[in-house]
Each structure stands twice: as structure tokens, then as C-alpha cells.
Amino acid sequence: ADPKTRITSAGGAILPQRSEIKRYSGPRLEAPPMTKQIGRDHFQLGVEDMYLFGDDYAEIIAREVRHRRHKDPKTGRYDGIELQDVKAGGTVSRHGGQSGDVIKSINGEPVTSVSEAITFVKNNGDKYDTWLVVVENMGRQRTVKYDSPPKIQR
């Protein structure tokens, strides 16, 4: 490792120090700094929250969520990401994540692991202004909607 790079471990993940993380420098966005809940399962993503999650997603997940791949009890096949325990008041909680949630899909794309979900979002971030996340909890399915901040034309 480069002696100038300081790393820490969070839940087994190697992470850069916060001071070494590069900030967003794309188009200016017009949105609240923090994510706002605008309906029961509807959120307007905040710019600062987006940057925070983009920069620190591994640390946030390690610090705030105990999770595992979920198996369908009928088929035995992996069918989602189970949020076993979500820290109250944390980033995940403020975005509607609850203990017991099983994330089934993002914009119609089935997800069965955290890395799969993150890869899908990173690879498709510029393609969607709205994110629809299908979640199941205690046998009930709901769709959580996240609106990306609108981009301002310069």
C-alpha cells in the first residue's frame, strides 16, 4: 500500500480516509441537501446524501446495516437482500430502510446481493431520474420511489 494512503477497516472492508475521498464535480444539482420524505414510500434524494452515499457507501453499509442474501423459503433460491438490522436515525433508515426489509429489485432488475445492487446503481446512475425499489417485509410487498435531484443546465 502507498504509505501516504491511510486506510481503516469497517466491518472487514478496507476504506479510504474521508479526507482522501474525491467530491462530485458534475453538473450543478437543484435539490434539498438532505433527502426528504415526500410520501409514504416516496423520497426526494438530497444532494449531500447522494454525495455521502456515493463516497462512503461501504462504510455506511458496514456501520448501519446487518444484512445477508435472502433465500425464498419455497424455492431455496436467492431472491433479494435482507436488511436484518437497520440502525435507527442512520442514512439507510432516513431513506426508508427498515429491519426485516428484503430488497427484491431496483428499476425492475432483480438483486440478490449488496454488490450486485451497488453495481447496478453505479452502472445506471445517468440513465434514471427515478429509482423504484421493490421491497418485501412480513409478506407484504411495496415499491419505494426515489427521485434524483434535477440537473441545472449551465
Number of helix segments? 3
Strand portion = 35-45%
End-to-end Cα distance, whole Å, is: 40 Å
Q: Give a quick account of the main beta sheet: strands, pairing sense, barrel closure.
A: 8 strands, mixed
Oligomer: single chain
Order of helices and strands: EEEEHEEHEEHEE
Mean pLDDT over all positions? 83
Q: Give the low-confidence spans.
A: 1-24
Percent helix range: 10-25%
Q: What global shape is seen?
A: globular
Radius of gyration: 16 Å
Description:
There is one protein chain. With 154 residues, this protein is an alpha+beta fold. It is 21% helix and 35% strand. The chain has helices spanning 47-64, 91-94, 114-124; strands at 7-10, 13-16, 36-39, 42-44, 65-71, 78-86, 102-106, 109-110, 130-137, 140-147. The strands form two sheets. Strands 3, 4, 5, 6, 7, 8, 9 and 10 form an eight-stranded mixed β-sheet that branches. Strand 5 (65-71) and strand 6 form a beta hairpin. Mean pLDDT is 83; it is low at 1-24.
Topology:
Elements: E1 7-10, E2 13-16, E3 36-39, E4 42-44, H1 47-64, E5 65-71, E6 78-86, H2 91-94, E7 102-106, E8 109-110, H3 114-124, E9 130-137, E10 140-147
Parallel strand pairs: 4-10
Antiparallel strand pairs: 1-2, 3-4, 5-6, 6-7, 7-8, 7-9, 9-10
